[in-house]
Amino acid sequence: MSSETRRVLGLETEYGLHHWNPEGRPLPAEEVARYLFRSIVEWGRSSNVFMPNAARLYLDVGSHPEYATAECSSLTELIAQDAAGDAMFRELAAQAEDAMSRDGIGGSVHLYRNNVDSAGNSYGSHENYLLRRGTEYRRLAESLVPFLVTRQLLVGAGRVVPGTHPSDAESSTGRAAHFAFSQRADFMEEGVSSATTRARPIINTRDEPHADPSKYRRLHVIVGDSNLAEPTHLLRFGATDLLLRMLEAGRGPRETELRHPRQAIRQISRDLTGRTAIELRSSAVTTALDLQRRYLEHAQRFVDAEGAHHDAVPRVLDLWSRTLQAVDSGDFTGIDREIDWAIKHRVLEGYRRRHGLDWDAPRLAQMDLAFHDITRGRGLFSMLRQAGQVERVVTDAQIEHAVAHAPSTTRAAVRAAFIARARERGLPYTVDWTHLKLEEHPRHALSLKDPFDTDQTCLDWLFDLIDAPVSGRS
Ligand SMILES: Nc1ncnc2c1ncn2[C@@H]1O[C@H](COP(=O)(O)OP(=O)(O)OP(=O)(O)O)[C@@H](O)[C@H]1O
Ligand SMILES: [Mg+2]
């Protein structure tokens, strides 16, 4: 594939962190985070580092550990690189637990790959897509909103939503506890904006391309749930990338703008039939299911006309179509090994029925949380996966490889090689998405403005230079 048709993809995942202590009070999250990052700080002198696989691992505000994949250029690469982040944190959590126990602190450390904590705080799973600067960005972002609002039918992570009372601010009538498509839907505030926390938009328009700004833009989508199943990831990035391609080519469906995106995303989330009426800006009334069918038909036609631009396109389209069929028929068995919300629904609904529970039973809320626990041997989803009850896209060997190796098809490979060479020689360095710098040679900092440039000769040049006689040094 040429760099004209390839797209850089990246995924940032924030984790919930918690200490369970049966014998006493749990440690505050900041202290658990200090244990969690201890070996990272020893290794990289900071709790904000670029790892040997060129990903960024850091502690965000609110003590939410975050892993941002390096720049990937295929879906399988992205899925493996993202899973490498779970593997790293799983290891760090085990180390933290050992260190705490040496300090006489019992209990266990848990990391949740979810989006809501028990206090009702929400944290994110942000997607990054590289766009060419020429695209009419604002229009493209606006056109993408209805797709993203309805995309939860495909790739929501599923959530047991607690009931509300008539006195609650959110609703004047009160609402029964229920199972919803999405974790994030109830927390999104607006469509397209440059803020991330205050107004929580669906797309963040802050212009930070992490690349040559005259050529590129980075689309930052912050509405998504943290996904667990690999096929759900495949569908999330695969379908969104297809939609972007259609919009870039001016071939997306028209007149899809929603009148009230904030309200629509909430209503759609709580209706597993996909048939809640939503109003378009044109005043026409439609449903999430119908809108998604339109997107899928357009995508199928687009691929028929243009050809598939990567090997996984048929699998993306097939999964997209089967998921809409499942929502349409109310029979989720065709997707309950592949799509997050359906996998979770199968487990929780089964339990609920067997025990005659309502959705507000505390046990179901606990199971919902346990579903997302990624620490060793504990999470419900991990157990299902180990038992072979969820489909895969990559192998364990690919994930293991991604822990130690950067994607080979983007500049991430150059960043990883730089980190390896600087560390091998004990040279202090600083790195970000676009810069590589040896601290003792600041004038020779390297700039990686083209995300597709994998040429490492700049590193040979830099390291030869510092090996040269004193006169050649900076
Ligand atoms: N040019 C690019 N196009 C698309 N994605 C990119 C590009 N450069 C970097 N990325 C991806 O963007 C993500 C950036 O992660 P990071 O957590 O640093 O996000 P941020 O939005 O810059 O900052 P923060 O999370 O601190 O607000 C990574 O997953 C990375 O691979
Ligand atoms: Mg981030």
UniProtKB/TrEMBL annotation:
Pfam families (UniProt xref): Pup_ligase
Enzyme class, UniProt record, top EC level: ligase
Protein name: Pup--protein ligase
Entry-linked NCBIfam families: pupylate_PafA
GO CC terms in record: proteasome complex
Keyword Magnesium carried by entry: yes
Additional observations: The reaction mechanism probably proceeds via the activation of Pup by phosphorylation of its C-terminal glutamate, which is then subject to nucleophilic attack by the substrate lysine, resulting in an isopeptide bond and the release of phosphate as a good leaving group.
Active site: residue positions: D60
